[in-house]
Specification:
The chain is of the alpha+beta class and 135 residues long. The protein has helices at residues 35-39, 59-68, 82-99, 109-112, and strands at 18-20, 23-25, 102-104, 116-118, 120-122, 132-134.
Length: 135
């Protein structure tokens, strides 16, 4: 329900202009984007807060969505640890969900919804976050 980075990822070229379409930005101009805003944009991902894995099933739609899916950034500035992180996520989640029966405990949507950030997302200050019981 949340991305790992909610702050802007600034980029600049100190020596050459940045040309984007009909726009030319002078050297040193800082440009940025927010991955969270991109991933929760309803014009790209209809009902972005809804768990809907079927949105990735159609090959044409998947190709369009993948262009906007950038949890680790893209290109030469993408996260160097992306592949390791993905393997760790698959292994950790597969082991956790195959070994334990977990149920939410005193957790509401409010507890996990981002309220503020300091580059990483944080929920309400009075929330205990996501809590589960393990059986």
């Amino acid at each position: 329900m949340a991305g790992s980075v909610s702050g802007r990822l600034a980029r600049s070229n100190p020596t050459a202009p940045i040309i984007y379409g009909s726009f030319t930005l002078p050297p040193g101009t800082v440009v940025s984007m927010t991955i969270r805003d991109l991933h929760t944009n309803p014009t790209i991902y209809p009902e972005p807060a809804t768990f809907n894995p079927e949105r990735w099933m159609d090959a044409n739609d998947r190709k369009r969505l993948e262009a906007y899916h950038v949890p680790f950034s893209k290109g030469s500035r993408s996260c160097i640890g992306k592949d390791l992180a993905m393997v760790e996520l698959y292994l950790a989640l597969a082991n956790m969900f195959s070994r334990f029966d977990m149920k939410l405990f005193e957790t509401s949507e409010r507890d996990i919804k981002m309220e503020h950030d300091f580059f990483a997302p944080f929920g309400p200050s009075d929330s205990k976050g996501l809590q589960v019981t393990i059986g």
